[in-house]
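Re: export button greyed out
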Amino acid sequence: MAQTVPHSMLAVAGLTKQIDDQQILRGIDLQVASGETLVIIGRSGSGKSVLLKHLIGLMLPTSGEVFIEGRQIVGLKERELLPIRRTVGMMFQGCALFDAMTVEENVAFPLREAGERDPKVIREKVAAALEVVDLTGHEQKLPVNLSGGMKKRVALARVVITRPHCVLYDEPTAGLDPVVSDSINHLIRRLQKRFGVTSIVVTHDMKCAGHVADKVAFLHEGAIYFYGAFADLVCSQDVLIQDFIQGRSGDTD
Amino acid sequence: MLLLRFLGSTALSLFGYLGELLFLMLESARSLVTTPIRWRLALGQILEVGYRSQLVVIVTGAFTGAVFAAQTYFQFHRLSMDTAVGAVVAVSMFRELGPVLTGLMVAGRVGASMSAEIGTMKVTEQLDALRSLGVHPVDYLVVPRMIAMMISMPMLVAECVGIGIVTGMFVAVHLLGVSQVWYTNYMLRFTALRDLEMALTKGFVFGILIVFVACNEGLKSQEGAVGVGRATTEAVVIGSLAILIVNFFLTMVLNIFFPAG
Ligand SMILES: Nc1ncnc2c1ncn2[C@@H]1O[C@H](COP(=O)(O)OP(=O)(O)OP(=O)(O)O)[C@@H](O)[C@H]1O
Ligand SMILES: [Mg+2]
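Workaround output, generated via the alternate export path:
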């Protein structure tokens, strides 16, 4: 494992996480090559969000290793992690917008933190980022006054504005209408093609998965149950996987 | 046996809590020396804690000074010591009443809002979002608040004391008929710069206590709205108790540096 790590943008090895009595992750090995998009799917509660948080050191594993651009981050101090995290963007499932700031300030925040001081440059970049997610004209609203889907898009704009090398999306299209979902799928693709951004996309949306995935990992009960190309996933004869793709619960009435 | 165990576990959790506070203070101190201070945020907080706390502090100081002057007069009048009222009011306001009452009011007003704000950010993952953007929550949230408190609290205490002395004098001179000249004469003779220094030192220390108790409660709050509610209550209760307890030790220690006249 250790030898192959330098080639990958993000990697985890033997990752386990236990909180109280619950074993949430049970030994996960994953590698994402530079410029690749990995889609993680899995039932609700299977540990997808927890896995993402481990990838940027927001949660500490019970055991196992996490590498960002070949650098082991487990065991680093919080202050040592901060500069590393700036190269990896994370879009939270709950959006996690700063509710004391307007949309514009939220989106400008990472730019300011990255050292950009020129108000004109900031304004232009923010306008461009909001344009991409179709939110022009909502700059002065506070997050509480946004719809769920709009919050998602602000969160997305906030993540991509600094062009991180790598972006982790936690359900970027959940709760969005089909048209906006599609434009976000295209955005993820475009970032990958044009800027070589490495992405991990957690999603339940099979259309999104099909659109953006280079590789798919199916997480089940805290372990990787399937890893491979999207086409192979769709063709898989495994009952669990087919149930997930088809959306069957096994209830018959 | 049971009592012993109870005392033991209480002592343990007390030490654990003090450890948490100390850790947060050390982290803030480190942030002060290693990362640039966010003055814009600090100014915003000064406005919030310093400027907007004034009404509360002025009312507290005014009525404490008034009632204390009246009560002292009623007692001293029987001993024909009317003119000493000013000295007693001023020294007590400077040394104890001003700092403690201001501390308690600010612990209620500012401690509660700080812990609620940070606690809400914690449970809505905004703190995680900060960290994911490479910003340390202590740098962004705690240090500006600490600076604001360190600057505002001494001023608020001074304000409280000043108002208290003025209203005390008003009550004694204009309502109770004590001689203005003798009142001020004794007051000035028995108060000195060291009384002011003691007031400001206490205010400074209480400000630090309030801000770290409140921020610590906010940062570790969990379990949604209930957790934030609990953090807020704890911030006020622990902050207030800490002020009263620390005040005793401060009085003992500071009396060495600023002995009563
Ligand atoms: N901070 C925490 N403390 C305790 N348990 C947690 C914590 N965070 C997550 N869990 C538990 O970990 C498990 C996985 O949660 P996670 O949020 O990763 O699920 P998920 O796969 O993202 O689900 P969804 O698709 O619904 O978002 C859940 O059982 C959850 O209760
Ligand atoms: Mg999730």
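Chain A touches chain B at residues 53, 56, 58, 78-79, 81-83, 85-86, 88-90, 92, 94, 96-100, 109-110, 113 (CB under 8 Å). The button fix ships in the next patch.
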